Amino acid sequence: MVRFEHVIIVWLGACVPLAQAESVIEGVVRLPPPSAAAMMPSRYENKIVGEVAPPEQPLAVVYLEGDFSALTNSNAPIARLEQKHFQFAPGLLPIRTGTTVEFPNLDDGYHNVFSYSKAKRFDLGRYRKDEKPPALVFDKAGVVKLFCEIHEHMRGTILVLDTPFFVKTDLAGKYRLEHLPSGNYTLKAWLAEKTVWEQPVEFLDGAHLRVDFPRK
Description:
The chain is an all-beta fold. It has one helix at residues 36-39; strands at residues 2-4, 7-10, 23-28, 61-65, 78-80, 82-84, 87-89, 92-96, 99-102, 111-117, 120-127, 136-138, 142-148, 155-161, 166-168, 174-180, 183-192, 195-203, 208-210. Strands 1-2-15-4-17-18 form a 6-stranded antiparallel beta sheet, with no helix packed on it. The chain has a 5-stranded mixed beta sheet with strand order 8-14-13-10-11, with no helix packed on it. It has a 3-stranded mixed beta sheet with strand order 16-3-19, with no helix packed on it. A hairpin with a 2-residue loop joins β1 (2-4) and β2 (7-10).
């Protein structure tokens, strides 16, 4: 996993032939402004003992779609989605299919994480900070919407992808994907289930492309 400020490039055991020069693509995704509700203190704040953080600002996930069946995971990946300051942290978590996700509770109070999504339906039940709920394997691509049965304001999303090449934008919408193999693919920018932009791309050895979304 390669990290730099506000941007996380997830590299989960993919293997690219050393004989090829790896390509890079970067650009900017136009993000929606934070909603007025997200900027205001939560109406649940007075009912919760502890600090209630504002929801995460809108971000996008940019990913390369194609046939990556030859690029297998060498290790079983693990990710964390915390309950922290009575919000899901991060609010948007992109992962590759086959990833195990842990759901630690960091707050001084009970939480309950559940989802009715087709890609993953589950209910972890209520648990405290000192209890460890079971970790879950997300083996089907799709959007998994998360909720807390106790705190109605809590919302989260796990985006499960059939690709090892994806990145979450920073707050300005900037992204950068590296170590990309040569070939023809589709580059997608995911903001929500009904807001997904895409652009066909072709990488030759060592290409450095720029794609902004939406396309002008």
